[in-house]
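Tokens for chain A. Residues wanted.
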């Protein structure tokens, strides 16, 4: 509906790719429908997908043993997350609809968006975002044919591949 705020989290290194085209079409169509659209182009932003100590600003909660989940939660509570995470979290909080546009590449590695824990970094810790009833959509392409993502195939059943994302991220939104 008009007035809806949409965030597209886009992860692909080539703007002229099928994923780039799908993202561009989505932006164009959503704007035509009266939505305001923000795109987080993770490659263009050079977003660091790895969950590291650099995500935490200031002192650690436990300097003896680094536990990313604990440290991210404690940093969130005290306002000590890195600026890139804070900016992405603001975008998520402001959006009514989240669209994740990405690709699954060779043997089930979901580049940048998932395998590097980018989702965990953007959302920090599940408890950081109370249930907001946001709508979310995964739009992705694969690096192979439909047959490559079936039970017993080289890449495995696509439903099992997507299950962690659906459970972890869809429960956040």
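Reply:
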């Amino acid at each position: 509906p008009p007035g809806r705020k949409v965030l597209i989290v886009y992860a692909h290194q080539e703007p002229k790719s099928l994923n780039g085209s799908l993202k561009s079409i989505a932006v164009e169509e959503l704007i035509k429908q009266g939505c305001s659209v923000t795109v987080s182009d993770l490659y263009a932003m050079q977003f660091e997908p790895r969950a590291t100590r650099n995500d935490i600003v200031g002192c650690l909660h436990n300097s003896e043993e680094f536990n990313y989940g604990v440290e991210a939660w404690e940093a969130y509570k005290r306002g000590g997350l890195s600026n890139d995470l804070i900016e992405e979290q603001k975008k998520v909080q402001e959006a009514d609809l989240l669209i994740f546009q990405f690709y699954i590449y060779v043997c089930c590695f979901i580049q940048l968006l998932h395998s590097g824990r980018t989702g965990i970094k953007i959302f920090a810790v599940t408890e950081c975002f109370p249930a907001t009833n946001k709508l979310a959509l995964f739009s992705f392409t694969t690096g192979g044919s439909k047959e490559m993502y079936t039970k017993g195939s080289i890449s495995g059943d696509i439903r099992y591949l997507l299950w962690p994302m659906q459970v972890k991220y869809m429960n956040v939104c």
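Helices lie at 18-32, 68-78, 83-94, 118-123, 158-170. The longest strand covers residues 97-105.
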